[in-house]
Amino acid sequence: MLHSKQLTPKPVPSALAGYTVLELILVMIIVGVVSAIAAPGWLQFVNVQRLNTAQSQIYQAMLEAKSNALREKRTWQVSIRQENEQVQWAVHRVDTDFIPPGVQWHNLNQDIKVDMEKNDQDVYETTLDSPGHKTITGPWRVQFNYKGNTNGQLGQITLIPKDHSPVQRCVYVSTLIGTLRMGYDQDKPNSRGKYCY
């Protein structure tokens, strides 16, 4: 007669055993705490990268307008506006209109806006020229004539994230001969009460 061997399960080595519910909860708590600590730093990093890109786009647009003016021996303009909470820029020839119809607009990142508020020094950070006079609501412009000089539009355009992070990037038109420079947020205001310089 054949005897069947009774099969008994072999014990599972501890290295292959599963995790307990308590261990899984502990790991989830640790991951949550690390994420909570790292998230603000990551958001700040992302905001800085977005602002750097937007600042570079505005700066390059101004350089393009200046170059076009010198090459064609006629006045070119960079126009900046905020339409439906979207910051846009365009490079075009100067027409009789402040911004002629048919201009091709380019969008900055949708999480960026123009700083249109007064700072704690009661000073506006955005001071670039607007139609007929300086205004905080835009649109803003700078023109370069056939010599590459500005047509009197001095000032700066300051960009900030929409989430109100304390980061700023600005582009300055600082002299009548068309000198351009980029500025960054600072801890202390300069002599004009601005934090982006």
Describe this protein with a few key phrases:
single chain, 197 residues, alpha+beta, minor pseudopilin epsh fold, four-stranded antiparallel β-sheet, 8 strands, elongated
Number of domains: 1
| Number of DSSP strand runs | 8
Strand order of the largest sheet: 3-2-1-5
The structural class is: alpha+beta
Terminal residue distance = 98 Å
| CATH homologous superfamily designation | minor pseudopilin epsh domain
Please report the number of helical segments. 1
Could you say which overall geometry the principal axes of the C-alpha atoms support? Answer: elongated
Strand content: 15-25%
What ranges have pLDDT less than 50 throughout 5 or more consecutive residues? none
For the report, how would you describe the main beta sheet? 4 strands, antiparallel
Q: Residue-averaged pLDDT, rounded?
A: 87
CA gyration radius, whole angstroms: 28 Å
Helix content: 25-40%
What's a quick, concise take on this entry?
With 197 residues, the protein is α+β, with helices and mostly antiparallel strands.
Structure description:
The protein contains one helix and eight strands, in the order αββββββββ. It has a four-stranded antiparallel beta sheet with strand order 3-2-1-5, covered by helices on one side. A four-stranded antiparallel beta sheet has the order 4-6-7-8, covered by helices on one side. The N and C termini lie far apart (98 Å). It has a single domain (19-184), classed as minor pseudopilin epsh domain (minor pseudopilin epsh fold, 3-Layer(bab) Sandwich), CATH 3.55.40. The chain has one helix at residues 21-72; strands at 76-83, 86-93, 106-107, 112-114, 140-144, 155-161, 169-173, 180-184. Strand 1 and strand 2 (86-93) form a beta hairpin. 27% of the residues are buried. Helices cover 26% and strands 22% of the residues. It is α+β, with helices and mostly antiparallel strands and 197 residues long.
